[in-house]
Amino acid sequence: MNQISPAQTDITPEPGPHHPDLRLVNANPDFWYPVAWSADLKRDKTLAVSYAGTPIVLVRPDEGSVFALYDRCPHRQVPLSKGTVNGQTVRCCYHGWAFGRSGRCIDVPYLGKGKLPNGVRTFPVREAGGLIFVFPGDPEKADSTPFPKLAQTDNPKYKTKHFSPRVNCHYTFMHENLMDMNHQFLHRRQMGQIKARFLGQDKGEDFIEARYSFMRCAGQQPLAERLIFGKHKDLQGKEQPVEEVVTIRTEYPYQTLRITDKDGDLIMDLWAAYVPLDKDERVTQSFGLLSILRPQTPFLIDVIWPALGWFTNRIFLEDKEIVELEQAAWNEAGYDRNVEIFPVVKALRELLIRCGIPQDMPPATAEKQPAPPTPAEPATSA
Ligand code: FES
Ligand SMILES: [Fe+2]
Fold first, then answer.
1. Domain boundary residue among 107, 128, 149?
2. Which PROSITE patterns match (predicted)?
3. pTM (predicted TM-score)
4. Which residue range forms the structural domain that includes residue 230?
């Protein structure tokens, strides 16, 4: 009997063409990243968030805009997010040092006439579309860095759903998962059997876009899909052509998925950002805004909203399981063994490498970033 030797089964080439390994490429911090939902930060409160292992405290004073500081008190490294907000300051919960929105230390209750210690690093903040964004990279680049268009959050013709699942994988798996519509096979139980047809792509220095249409080969059109898109023609056992075009675009570092109907009208507009939480960037906090064109029947959207939520969540859970398994396989192998054959994903991987920061190559901006100042102990003590 012919036995297959391990060497014959292991057809994956050793990495080489994969350098740098995509899963060791950090997200580029010189962009605006969402870190929290606006609704989760109340007036006069703080909220602890993080970007790639950097702890950040968001502060919403009673008056004025949100500000963001490095979330460690320079005194004993206690999170400032445990402190209290008074006016435009946050006061550490331990010895009561107070910091203003510029990060400066403005009060040490027991200091007397001594020189005030150094403050903490600040981060530029913007709030839009129900999200709080920070600029974790070089603050001097914040103003000139384009702010993303957040689906249709400012368009009353659409209703927008928020979602923010945390996924235990490198952010690049999320980009690949959504861009590669050839994975509809995974969702066959939720969507029925549909086949993606690749229509074409566009790419540039900082983006790649792929367009698809879909063909239902068998099974019923799910109800939520039918209510949004209308009933597709039932050709009695024949393949049902679907006339919507799905456009998926990674415009670094964000990703969008837009569905237009046969007249070119935008029916669905998804915007997503994948934010690394930990230093190794193997835990990703995603933030998504899904805008759906309101059907002409008033309130129909509100009636179908829970079903739509359930449907999208079921699909998402399948994706989450898969991308986490991909990360687990990377951890097990210790490097990227993927064999990619789809040109769009190959181009996407190049884009993510080109725009990201390889881990063994510290970013020029990281050196320029002010390190959180080292604490200077007060001259006097209580
Ligand atoms: S640790 Fe913050 S004031 Fe002492
Ligand atoms: Fe999927």
1. 128
2. RIESKE
3. 0.87
4. 158-364
